[in-house]
Specification:
The chain is of the alpha/beta class. It has a single domain (4-119), classed as DsrEFH-like (Hypothetical Protein Ychn, Chain: A, 3-Layer(aba) Sandwich). Helices cover 34% and strands 21% of the residues. The protein is built from four helices and five strands; from the N terminus they run E-H-E-H-E-H-E-H-E. The chain has helices at residues 16-31, 64-73, 82-87, 104-112; strands at 4-9, 35-40, 77-81, 99-102, 116-119. The chain has a five-stranded parallel sheet with strand order 4-3-2-1-5. Helix 1 packs parallel to helix 2 (64-73). The longest helix has 16 residues, at 16-31.
Length: 120
């Protein structure tokens, strides 16, 4: 039985290294058969907007946009913190493919099912 794994991503361009490593770990988790969710919150919410991650590329890693696309294509789940997205006045019609805006209850439900969690 596959386990559950959550990557809570609180960074974007403010710390591109953490944003990138978060998706590297998420890709490793989903590739190993874990039911994997990336929760974009705080500054990480910006990553849910189309075009935002296009120019983020940390040395030694694949471009962040590619890591995000690979994660979704591999079956990973991409959740976006609703109040974080609204606070930043981001357009809900401009979400990256595969992203879903959720509230805290959804996150709590996933964690209560035994998901391991890591934060970047």
């Amino acid at each position: 039985m596959a386990g559950k794994f959550l990557v809570s991503l609180t960074n974007a361009k403010n710390d591109a290294d953490k944003a990138t490593v978060g998706f590297v770990v998420a890709n490793a988790a989903v590739a190993s058969g874990q039911e994997t969710v990336v929760f974009l919150n705080v500054e990480g919410a910006y990553l849910a907007s189309k075009g935002y991650a296009d120019d983020i590329h940390e040395a030694g890693f694949a471009p962040l946009k590619q890591l995000m696309e690979n994660f979704v294509e591999a079956g990973g789940t991409l959740w976006v913190c609703s109040p974080c997205y609204k606070k930043r006045e981001l357009d809900e019609e401009n979400l990256v493919d595969g992203a879903t805006i959720v509230g805290g209850a959804k996150l709590v439900e996933f964690l209560s099912l035994g998901a391991a969690s890591i934060t970047y």
